[in-house]
Specification:
The protein has a 3-stranded parallel beta sheet with strand order 2-1-3, with helices on one face. The chain folds into 2 domains: 11-97, 3-Layer(aba) Sandwich (D-Maltodextrin-Binding Protein, domain 2); 109-175 and 195-213, no CATH class. It is mainly alpha-helical and 214 residues long. It has 11 helices and 3 strands, in the order βαβαβααααααααα. The protein has helices at 27-38, 58-64, 77-83, 93-97, 109-114, 116-135, 138-142, 154-166, 178-191, 200-203, 207-213, and strands spanning 18-20, 48-50, 70-71. 47% of the residues lie in helices and 4% in strands.
Length: 214
């Protein structure tokens, strides 16, 4: 999110800028750091990736202090900012950073063994919601989401859904790809938050997901 329209924005445009990046160890901050590093930008050298502001206070800080040139924001807050004339979306960190399993649901092996039917029903419900949003217009989907986003206009919710659909942010399958899992670890390693890599075969069980799409 920037303070002026930048239709030709490039990540290198963040050089020497003060950017509200999120909190240390959080995916928004780590992903932004990964994208910036790939563009030759490094905190303390030629960019200020500020991680000192609490995540839920970042929007207020950006609105209230012009020392911040840019700010990362989740949707639909970002679209609401645009529609209210308080800022401009200049780029998508998620799109630039590549596919990662950002929102994931986990359970212990023992729970899944004892509650397989419950886990399957939950996964089916989540996947059904994803499919609905990819098969319907943002305006149609937004009508069903207003209760979950109090104070956010339906137009902003629709705009945010369009943004997600444009970059194919919604998973097309509940099966977790090993390449996406590894990419997330690449991003964490780049941020210095991952002491050792996890074994995909031990960390991920795709059997339930495979049953859902069979």
């Amino acid at each position: 999110m920037g303070r002026k329209p930048e239709p030709d924005f490039k990540w290198s445009d963040l050089k020497d800028k003060h950017v509200l990046a999120g909190r240390p160890g959080g995916v928004p901050a780590m992903m932004l750091q990964y994208v910036c590093n790939n563009a030759g930008l490094y905190h303390g050298e030629n960019i200020n990736l500020d991680t000192t502001v609490a995540f839920d206070a970042m929007v207020g800080a950006f609105d209230g202090d012009t020392k911040y040139d840019y700010c990362t924001m989740f949707e639909p807050t970002a679209s609401e900012h645009v529609l209210s004339g308080r800022g401009y979306i200049v780029a998508s960190v998620g799109d630039a950073g590549g596919a990662v399993p950002y929102t994931a649901f986990s359970a212990s092996k023992s729970y899944l063994e004892k509650n397989r039917d419950t886990a399957l029903a939950f996964l089916r419900a989540v996947f059904k919601g994803y499919k609905y949003m990819t098969e319907h217009t943002p305006e149609e989907s937004a009508k069903h989401l207003t209760a979950s986003f109090a104070g956010i206009s339906e137009a902003s919710i629709a705009a945010s859904l369009k943004s997600y659909l444009d970059i194919e942010a919604f998973a097309k399958t509940p099966v977790l790809k090993e390449s996406d899992f590894n990419h997330l670890m690449d991003i964490m390693e780049n941020a210095g938050t991952l002491p050792s890599r996890a074994d995909f075969a031990k960390a991920v069980d795709n059997s339930l997901a495979a049953e859902i799409i069979a």
